[in-house]
Amino acid sequence: MAFFEASEGPWPALLIGVPLLAAFTAIVTWRAARLLIWSGAAVVPVLSVVLLARVIHAGGLRLPIGGWAPPLGIAFAVDGLSAGFIVVTGLVMAGVLLFALPQFTASAPGAAESRAGYAFVPLVFLAWAALNALFLSGDLFNLYVALELLTLSAVALVAIDGRSGTIAAAIRYALFGLFGSLAYLLGAALLYAVHGTLDMALIAERATADGATVIAGALMTAGLAAKTALFPFHAWLPPAHSGAPAPASAILSGLVPKASFYIIVRIWFDVMPQAAGTIMPVLLGVLGSCAIIYGSVLAIRQEQLKLVIAYSTVAQLGYLFLIFPLAGGGGEPQPWAAGAWTGGIIHAFSHALAKAAMFLCAGLFMEALGHDRIAGLRGAAHHLPLTVFAFALAGVSLMGLPPSGGFTAKYLLLTASFAGGQIGWAIVIMVGGLLAALYLFRPLTYAFTRRGLEEREFARVPRPRQVIPLLLAGLSILLGIASAAPYDILQIGRPHAAVEGLE
Asked: Nearest to residue 212, comparing CAs of 275, 258, 126?
């Protein structure tokens, strides 16, 4: 990673400190939650954009904490990749908090007596702080701490309503998370034993393809794959995401899996690209391909909308792991690697926005109908036109249709596949797009069906709440229309292995 050493102090720590302060304040003075939501939704995204502007101006930033540089101290490390994730996180979190404002604040009927009403706002701000800390960290142990705070917050959000089904899903999630944490921590400890530091930039200077480094990378990758819900470690995801409240599901699907994926990308492209070899990239690509097909097929078979969206998450996460085989593993320069790496990251951004919009739409359908059965969505387009339109826009991005961000991402992945002569991955991408059309057109078909419309009873849903998922879905489309900007941002501090390919 090529970073500019900044000396003005760790001001990006506000991206961690502000959400943490909001979380603790919400616990102590819960009735101020509404004010905290408005304040956090305004301040933290602005700080994210300011950080992005600094990165664009100065290139990658490396900010020693307290004036102590690694290996004695720790440092924040920010480039186009991390700044991009921080901005997308800010947009999704702000949208989710504003969407949940009538449901989980003191003004909501019965909120004061409910566990969900008391805990939701602090947990979301804790998750927000953990995500920002993770994307800012340049140290493998700090990544572990941030990832654990995120996992604990996410598990609590799954079980927040106290129902037996969601508690069981949360326990399953916690067990997978425990396995992932132990594997990651063991790998990090092995790297420290070999290289005497956990700073990623210093390890990158010292790491070779020795056995200990390869084993450490494999352990960390296995643990992070479990947290990302990569096939076959996906069993915790559908019940967790479908059982949680819709705003929590939007975070759990749109952002939480991206955190562990981000660390995997850092490990192999920034820290130890020379240790990737030929087996690891192909193995991750095969597991990603299995996730695309398996998740899509199961999504087609579901009768509840939230389960369709949850299994769609399993499938869409699989595309992210195609960047590893497409970025190489053959040991020679591969000029298409940069396109594959950038395409995978843009897909992560697009999926975060689109999937958050979809879960919020599902929540609105449940509020209006009292359920999320697909067959019961008849007439939804007539009563909830903005919500159905938002769901359709998000579907356009997930299917990879122009002019969405999903189209830009999959176009780059397909281009890399054909340029490298790796046609198998291209076939998986195209088949996955067709399967996505099948499971997304089905609820839309019911929503536009007017037969029996006079028999349907829809509760009133305020239009401002319908606008929020529409804005998130629109941003996933804008990501493709204005794709030159995110593409250029991702080239700031881009690792060498993302240009030449993994070795």
From this structure: 275
